[in-house]
Amino acid sequence: MSGRSAWSFIDTNPVTVVLLAIVALSLLQGVRRGASGSARQLFHFLIHSVVTVGAVAVSAYAASSFSGDVQAWLSVHGMARPSPDANTFKQLSYAVVSGLRDLPLFRFAALFLLVYTMIRLVTGVLAGWFAAFGSAPFAIMPSGGVLGRTAGGAIGAAIGSVRALLLTAVLFGYCALFPHGPYTGDIQQSALYREVAAQVIRPAAGPLLERRLPVFARQMTGELDQLWQRRYDVIDAELPGDIVRAAQSITKGKSGDEAKARALYEWIGTRIAYDYDKVKAYEERGEWREQNPETTFKTRKGVCIDYARLYAAMARAVGLDARVVTGAGYDGRGGYGAHAWNEVYLSEKGKWVPLDPTWARTGDWFNPPRFADTHIRQA
């Protein structure tokens, strides 16, 4: 502890209070149980800790090993896009399945939770049986008396210290994942937390892990953003007949995904007018006029998200796989502003390509070169 007194790490910070309370309560429980009960509690604690750590390690290894196989299987046997008149459950199921197929971290997390749950269901019974029979020898230890209570308190304090250490590790991970997140500053103001993190957690975790956690958080956030953007597949699942008929008429005689996708892009880009009044109402009065693809189709007006939602809906109406993408678009004045556009999957090319129907009147924004120079995805 760098030669400092133990009292120098005690303050009124809530994190310090909680950590000390965990140790104090465990100590009191140990005194109440005595040496026999506390030793049995320690034994149970160790058994469950070993099982948990083992389950996490095996689950992580299994999820990593089988992630590629699951992705390949879903690419071939995955759920086909539901028809425009499919119910919400089918549309939501497709969003989840396609997310498992396309998002590596989301797929890893799902496999991890599945394997972990299965392991804990199996090991829970075994661990309980082993703990029940394995703790029998502790019955001969004293439960009462000064010696028994003192030994119990010492064991309880040890259990509490481990619990406090685990909580500190969780807080350390939170601070590494969200260095500017809520409560991060409050956590780091705890002198006790800082000392335990510096002397125990950081040396054990290593600087590499501390640097990689924020990167992992950004990647996971990016994937969650992509999954969240697929909500429009569910929100706009039920397509009105006029939109379906219009999309079919626009793409009539077009062969191939690219020809159909471009025809819809050109139609929306030239038929829908940008609604400057809607933007003004939001900027000046904070009034946001939510509208679905049917409203955009009927009024022939909308802003970028309305263009994008209408395009995705019309694309699905003719069997194309399209999605809404949100992020920032170049404003022509050296800055960027909130924007939305689309990506559509072209089976003949085997890839997703970007397009921006909102900007169609200013040039060709159907998969142009250097599209990413002017469009920054939210992730």
Describe the protein's architecture and organization:
- The structure is a single chain.
- This protein is of the alpha+beta class.
- It folds into 2 domains: 6-231, no CATH class; 240-377, C8orf32 fold (Roll).
- The chain contains 12 helices and 6 strands.
- Helix 9 (257-271) runs antiparallel to helix 12 (304-317).
- The model has no long low-confidence stretch (mean pLDDT 83).
Using brief descriptors, characterize the structure shown:
alpha+beta, C8orf32 fold, 2 domains, two-stranded parallel ribbon, 12 helices
Largest sheet geometry: 4 strands, antiparallel
Order of helices and strands: HHHHHHHHHEHHEHEEEE
> How many domain modules?
2
Share in β-strands: 5-15%
Helical segment count: 12
Query: Separation of termini?
Result: 42 Å
Shape descriptor reads elongated
**Helix share of residues?**
55-70%
SS class: alpha+beta
Q: Residue ranges: pLDDT <50 for 5 or more in a row?
A: none
Total number of strands: 6
**What's the overall average pLDDT, rounded?**
83
Based on CA atoms alone, the radius of gyration comes out at: 29 Å
The largest beta-sheet arranges its strands as 5-4-3-6
